[in-house]
Amino acid sequence: MDGLFIDDISMRFDLPNGGHVQALKNVTLDIKSGELMSVLGPSGCGKTTLLNIVAGFLAPTEGRIKLNGHEVTGPHPERGMVFQQGALFEWMNVRDNVSFGPDMKGMSRKESAEKVEHLLDVVGLQDFKEKAVYELSGGMQQRVALARCLANDPDVILMDEPLGALDALTREKMQSLVLDLWKDTGKTIILITHSVEEALLLGERLLVMAPRPGRVHKEYRLPFADLGVGNDLREVKKHKEYAKTREEILAMIWNMEEEIMGRTEESA
Ligand SMILES: Nc1ncnc2c1ncn2[C@@H]1O[C@H](COP(=O)(O)OP(=O)(O)OP(=O)(O)O)[C@@H](O)[C@H]1O
C-alpha cells in the first residue's frame, strides 16, 4: 500500500472559445516510497499539470491519485511543493519561513525551534537564519524553500523546476544537496526539469513525457543518482552510460519539438 499511485489520470481543460486542451491522457505511474523520479518533456506536455494534480491543486477529469493507500482529494502537508521561485514569505526571516508549517500545525515552540535548527543545518543556512528572504541569493532562497518543505515532514516532495533560475555553479551545488536530502530523508521526490543533464543526474527513474495529448513516452531506470550521492557530479557525468543516454534523450525531445513545430506550421 505504501507509495504513490497515479492511476490512469487524464486532464482536459475546456477553453472559453469552446475548444479544449487534453493536457494529460491515461497517465499511470506506480512510484515506490523513497523513489526519486525526474520528469522531462517538451513545453506543454503536461508536466506541471501532473504535479499540480498530485499536489491536489487540480482535480483530474479522469483517474485518481492514491498515496499510501488513501485517495488524494486536495492539498495536504503530506505532499510538499518546491517551486522555481517566489514561494517564500518575503517579509519573514529565514527561520520564520522554515518554522511556518510546524507553527501552523501547533507544534510546541521548543519542538519547532529544534526542528528548524536541524533543518537549517541540513541545508547549510545556520549563519543566515536572521536574514530576510530578500537579502539572500537565489540559491540560498531555494535552500530555504527546501527546508520549509521538509519542516512539514511530507511523504512526497514535488519540485517544479526548483533549480531552473540558478546560475550553473549554484545549480550544481543544489543538485548535490537534493541528492543528499533524498538519501538522508528517504522521501519520495518527483522533480520536473527542462535540463536533460539534471534529469539524468537526479532521477533514479527518469520519465520522458510527450505532448498532444500529454502522456508517458518512455521511462528509464538510471544508476547516476545513486552514484552521485556524496560524490562529485562531474565524475558521474564521465560514466559511459551517461553520454549515451543523454544523447538518446536529447534526440527524442528534439524530434518531439520538430514534430510540434511541423504541426503548428501546417495548421498556420
Ligand atoms: N488552466 C489551464 N487552462 C487551459 N489550458 C491549460 C491550463 N493549464 C495548462 N494548460 C494547457 O495544458 C497543456 C499542458 O500544460 P503544462 O503547463 O502542464 O505543461 P508543461 O509540460 O509543464 O509545460 P512547460 O514545460 O512549458 O512548463 C498546455 O497546452 C497548457 O497550455
Q: Which small-molecule species are bound to the chains here? A: adenosine-5'-triphosphate
Output the radius of gyration. 19 Å
- Main-sheet strand order equals 6-7-8-3-9-10
Strand content: 15-25%
By DSSP (H or I, 4+ residues per run), the number of helices equals: 9
Q: Quick one: biggest sheet?
A: 6 strands, mixed
Distance between the termini: 49 Å
DSSP strand count:
10
Q: What is the global morphology?
A: globular
Poorly predicted regions: none
What does the average pLDDT come to?
A: 93
The string of secondary-structure elements, in order, is EEEHEEEHHHEHEHEEHHH
Indicate the percent of residues in helices.
Answer: 40-55%
Structural class: alpha/beta
